[in-house]
Fold these 4 entries.
Entry 1:
Amino acid sequence: MVGQLAAGLSFLLVGAGAHVVQTAGLALATDLTPERSHPKVVGLMYVMLLLGMMGSALVLGALLQEFSPGRLVKVIQSVALLVVALNFIAVWKQEPRSRERALMQVPSDTTFTESWSHFCQGEDTVRRLLLVGLGTMAFGMADVLLEPFGGHVLNLSVSATTLLTALFAAGGLIGFAVAVKAVGTGAEANAVASWGAAMGLPAFALVIASAPLSTPAVFVMGNFLIGVGGALFAHGTLTATMSRAPKEQTGLALGAWGAVQATAAGAGLALSGVIRDLVDSLVPPLTPAASTHAAGYMTVYAIEIALLLVTLAVAMPLIRKRGLLSDANVKASTVL
């Protein structure tokens, strides 16, 4: 019982720490860089994240070739120590406290409630936050189920399912490269996010199809495309948030994005596990010889497809509106 509570607490602390660092780092980067560089800042942050995922997945896959519970515990403990060391290096001498700088800052008389009310009155603010929440939940529900699905349903080894993370990260790198290039050449950020949501539709369909077909290759391709689509969506929504935020409310805008993303991701992860277990308890296996239920996994993936369709519906007005504004600007510049 103590071990389970400690494991749960560790997940909670890792998630909270990651989102706090992400939001604060993005706010600082937004303040320090010009608007034209925002897509590159977003891309750099996520590329480093995905490189870490790829490297760790490859190393963990190699270490767990000869799997045993004791070996798994030792690997996890080693990873925890390495993470502590890397975090210590990362925060070393970061933005040291300064009494002089603190005295120069003018305190604001505006309360958080007033600032939030003003922020929500911005153009399409609620719709953009809804877009972030729906898309994040759609992609996030699969995070904790892809590897178990490969092992339980397709009988992949522990080492092979660990390497799925590397493939997922590789897809993410490609997605971010495409997003940075597209936004840098004038594509609208919300349109890029919609590309990611649209790519998620065939990706999850392939994952679902891999169960009745018993074909790991189809599952692997779907896993890869989920990485690409998720990266396009994350880059697009975050770039749109950074670009559309009022200068005096950049931190609040990024904080809202981070809060919605973290809440949606956490809710998606929790719901995915509950839905899988509930469906598996009610629906028999696909075949009498099947040792593991696949219906729970497939139900979750089907829900994700439905959420992506809703995400696309929410994104369409934003894309059309920005497109009309761009056309108006071009016409005005031509007249002038």
Entry 2:
Amino acid sequence: MKVLDTIKTTTEELGPPEPEYLFRAHKYAGVASPTFTPDLDVPFDLGFKRIVSFDEFIVDLANHLSKTQKEEGGERIETYFVSMSPILEWTIHTAGKKERNTTQDEVVGLAVFDVKKLRQNSSTTIFRVSHVLEFLISQGRSFLIPAEVQKWARNCDEYVSVGKIPDDGLVRWVRWAELYSQSVTILPECFSRAYTLAIYRNWIENQCVELGVEDVCNRIVKFGKVLAGPQGDLLFPLIKLVLKPGIQFWGLRTATGEDEIESRIHVIINDDTPLDQFSTLRL
């Protein structure tokens, strides 16, 4: 399937630069730590490409993208893809939805993957779905993926990995209970209850809490530290992604501008950071 290799090699020419990190809302049971293996652990190698045609691959991708909807209808769909997204708020919200439907022995959390480490692994192949869609449009074959599924994939900027994600690609795993801890969270109570982020935005629009800039910044820093955990080099990048949709998205409001908030957060973190860690931090 040479066309798939074409999609991979042209990614830098399409759209914004590749993200540093990808996120996954993940639910698992029965093991000490999560692994990220698809239902069908199929290597994306020459043997695969000889057996599976391009159209078959795209139909399989379409089935994967609509998997949640199909499973809710009672049909179990097994695929060889693992889903990820660079949109932090989208993935945290998805984790909250998964948490509402867990059994006693299941754990839900947020996985953070380093894109460079994933790309460096010869057995891992990652596709940005929007690139695949653009290629299909250029070939007049976008009908292979339903329009509503295409829209969903673009909204969350879906990425998929074919086959198992390598263990060294995972740089942080944080459980939902930690994300929603009342002592550190900035997630409003209605955040995980909303079925979509659009519904959540409507709910939160008139519910923002007016706070002083120090209070806002300290709350965001605390939440960033939960996200990053012991991985100090993740702290600044993750906080920037928390700030990306704006503080009002999280139900916070202050008279200070967004740029000043980011600068103040930078100062707070630097004041708390041991000198020997400065070389690993970036903003």
Entry 3:
Amino acid sequence: MARRHGVSDEVLATLDDQENCPVTEAEKAALRFAERMTSEAGGVGAEGVDELRAHFDEAQIVELACVVGLFNYLNRFAEALGMWPTRVGEGGPDEG
């Protein structure tokens, strides 16, 4: 899906090395926030939010937190129920 939205292979290959990933400083801050929120939500703290404020307004920060939280919820829900994505030919919604 990321490739369909213009994310390069180089970015995808270096997402785990956020400091060297070829994205903007704002995107790096968002990636750090998402990682902290995912691994230790209570550890984000004022410092983590302040880092975002250098690049985003309050509404954008709330939206970012909502998106990260939603995907964390969906992943945990799917894992708890053993739900895994289907591949082409395995009966996904486009195969009516």
Entry 4:
Amino acid sequence: MTPFRRNETRKRPHWSEEGLDPDYRFSLANERTFLAWIRTALALMAGAVALKQLIPGFAIRGLHTGLGLVLAGLGMAISVNAYRHWAGYERAMREERPLPRSQLMPWVSGLLALAAVIVVVVVLTNAL
């Protein structure tokens, strides 16, 4: 039995082998952006764990779990889309196309704003 060889079955080169190599400064800047997205995802997931483990339940039933799920889900979505974002920018630079717009940023902003509103409501209801 012959081992599977990836290059023999591929009909066209991998996207990282196509086009021109971009200026390394732009590739490194793209990588730093990717790492910033990953740090953000880790912070959101750590916040979800801290919320569930360290903060007692809220007066509104299900809000504690719901907020934890929003934070964890947002962290998961960011971590998955961080690679897609990085790869899309690398492809565009290699093909000398304009950089694609990120669809993730409006979602991140909106969901974090929603989480902030929920936290404000919880703090105000517990303070009264």
